[in-house]
Design a protein that fits this description.
The complex is a heterodimer of chains A (about 475) and B (about 110).
Chain A (H helix, E strand, L loop, with lengths): L1 H53 L5 H29 L18 H4 L15 H22 L6 H23 L5 H6 L7 H19 L14 E2 L4 H21 L2 E2 L7 E2 L8 H22 L4 H16 L7 H24 L9 H19 L4 E2 L4 E2 L2 H28 L7 H6 L1 H5 L2 H4 L9 E3 L5 E3 H13 L1
Antiparallel strand pairs in A: 1-6, 2-3, 4-5, 6-7
Chain B lengths: L58 H38 L18
The chains are: A mainly alpha (about 475), B mainly alpha (about 110).
């Protein structure tokens, strides 16, 4: 009898203990994602500083406002449509057998009118997980932001940011960045920290927009040679990049799934095992390799050295859950070097005026990152079907993401262009967006202003006013 | 005090005064009795009991959600129209006048003659 009572008590204690562990785990997960969200704000502080430093003084306020207002539009649009896209569209298009065999269990709580979107004592994770994805969305939209500086309309940018941040990237994430996405289930597509899902697609989208937006007035000579505009504060640009790098650690961490009461405790987005330490190692070695590759490929140019660090990390993100540190270091170095050459080629040969090199740093590095997994990390079972990662699966993912990103950006910006809503008028571009859009008596910096200069293709600095006025008159006529 | 709009779901019961929830397995359970039958309890939300999350919304919460969607779209359209009007004015102004040589006078800067 006594044994029976003790057995009953032990059973009750075990049950209470198990329930407590589940609650502890849920609250630990809730805190984990919450703090990644807080730290990921630094990415946006960084984007703002980076871009405000790289533009000319006459466009500083317009640039900063654009970054801030990204949050104002992507937040509601992602809430109302983006999370539903991610949770409810993972099977993708019914293009073959088994392509629609998975319906996400999260679909019900992914709709904005679900009661998992309010205080809910049985669901600690949904809202903080949503917020982590929302921060990814801000980041994705902000990647495009820097490329369009100094001539895009604020409203056009906000529309494009909503499309990229709340529809396009999250659709490719549903397909290739979830355990049940069709690219993962059928082809073992593996992009664990979003080389292609975030960066590659954003770069492709940006390229499509740039084709319609055109270069800044005076950027190219009549012969098609590129002039350089001097950044108003390169130091704050570099500091902005360092802030982005800091926030990237949180971005990396937020890409993991935490389940502290279940072995192994950590999983990547495909629910395959990894550890927080391993991805932190790869991002760190990615920076080291990226800075080095960027420095030597650009012959010590500060902008490309620091951008090389970002490119290096992006290049190793897809396989960060499984790479060895040395492999990450070498791949990051190679990626950064290729990105420097790609960035110069895009500017000088394609004559695409990408102010911050986003197409190269994010787009080229992102697609290289997907490719590297196929070459160097094949054979890792990925997704709920445990299909091995392979070069074929990676190429299928790349072939899906490239047109998805590029065409959606190109078509959307073409429509805005036809409506004359894409670009500011030439008169406004030359005088500066700050003068036209904001109160110059109030918001001009209280420091002495030097005459605007630009650098001709042969390296000669000249007063900008003459070149810009002439180019503006040509654009108006 | 009567509520102007009582937006709490039905599973949240009213009644002031501290009263612990009826629970059996923990001495330090902090949930109050008014909430013990309700897992989800956001304003205007349908409310749900334990084990029954994500049940979908009732009419008033659906209306609130759609109101948010409409406002979001309206804001985007307003942004386009507002900026377009300002840029047309600015283009007309700066197309007619010579661009100013710099910012207004400011302490320690260009044009400061004090």
């Amino acid at each position: 009898m006594i044994d029976f009572v003790f057995a009953q008590v032990e059973t009750l204690e075990e049950a209470a203990s198990a329930e407590g562990q589940v609650l502890d785990s849920a609250i630990l997960g809730e805190q984990f994602y919450f703090f990644t969200v807080v730290l990921m704000w630094l990415i946006h502080v960084g984007f703002m500083s980076y871009e405000a430093g790289v533009v000319r003084r006459k466009n500083v306020m317009a640039t900063a406002m654009k970054n801030i207002l990204t949050i104002a539009v992507v937040t509601p649009t992602f809430y109302y449509i983006g999370w539903w896209i991610y949770n409810c569209n993972q099977p993708g298009l019914p293009i073959g057998p088994n392509s629609s065999d998975f319906t996400s269990a999260a679909c019900g709580s992914g709709i904005p009118w679900s009661d998992a979107f309010g205080p809910n004592l049985t669901n600690n994770i949904n809202l903080v997980f949503f917020l982590a994805f929302l921060l990814f969305s801000w980041t994705t939209a902000s990647i495009m932001s820097g490329a369009l500086l100094e001539r895009v309309r604020l409203s056009a940018y906000l529309l494009l940011a909503s499309l990229l941040g709340s529809v396009v990237w999250i659709l490719d994430a549903a397909w290739g960045w979830s355990a049940g996405g069709w690219l993962t289930l059928r082809f073992g597509f593996h992009d664990s920290i979003a080389s292609g899902v975030v960066h590659g697609v954003a770069g492709a989208f940006t390229l499509g927009v740039l084709f319609n937006l055109g270069p800044r007035i005076g950027k190219y000579t009549r012969e098609g040679l590129a002039r350089q505009f001097r950044p108003q504060n390169l130091h704050i640009t570099l500091m902005g990049l360092m802030l982005i790098f800091t926030g990237f650690y949180a971005f990396y961490a937020a890409c993991l799934v935490i389940a502290s009461t279940t072995f192994p405790g950590w999983a990547n987005i495909y629910l395959s095992p990894t550890t927080l330490g391993s991805i932190a190692m790869i991002i760190t070695f990615g920076f080291a390799g990226g800075f080095t590759g960027g420095y030597f490929a650009s012959r010590g140019d500060p902008f490309w050295t620091v951008s090389g660090g970002l490119a290096g990390v992006i290049g190793v993100s897809a396989g960060a859950d499984v790479y060895a540190p040395t492999l990450g270091y070498l791949l990051a170095m190679a990626t950064a070097a290729m990105v420097v050459y790609a960035g110069n080629w895009i500017e000088k040969n394609m004559r695409v005026d990408d102010v911050v090199g986003a197409v190269a740093v994010h787009g080229v590095a992102g697609f290289l990152g997907m490719l590297w997994v196929g070459v160097f990390a094949a054979g890792y079972p990925t997704g709920l079907n445990n299909v091995d990662s392979s070069i074929g699966g990676q190429l299928i993912g790349m072939a899906t993401f490239l047109p998805l990103g590029f065409l959606s950006g190109w078509v959307a910006s073409l429509v805005l262009k036809k409506l004359n809503l894409l670009r500011v008028p030439p008169e406004v571009e030359v005088i500066g967006l700050d003068v036209a859009e904001y109160e110059p008596n109030l918001y001009f910096p209280e420091v002495a202003v030097q005459e605007e200069m630009l650098v001709e293709p042969d390296g000669t600095p000249v007063v900008a006013a003459t070149v810009l006025t002439k180019s503006r008159d040509e654009a108006v006529s | 005090m009567p509520a102007i709009i009582n937006s709490a779901p039905d599973c949240v019961t009213s009644g002031s005064g501290s009263e612990a929830a009826r629970v059996e397995d923990s001495a330090d359970f902090i949930l109050q009795a008014n909430y013990q039958d309700c897992a989800g309890f956001g304003t205007f939300m349908p409310g749900s009991t334990y084990g029954d999350e994500g049940t979908g919304a009732e009419t008033i919460y659906m209306i609130l959600t759609w109101l948010g969607i409409v406002v979001t779209v309206a804001v985007l359209v307003a942004w386009v129209l507002y900026e377009n009007r300002r840029l047309i004015v600015a283009a007309t102004t700066f197309g007619r006048e010579a661009p100013p040589g710099g910012p207004p006078p400011q302490p320690g800067g260009v044009g400061d003659t004090q």
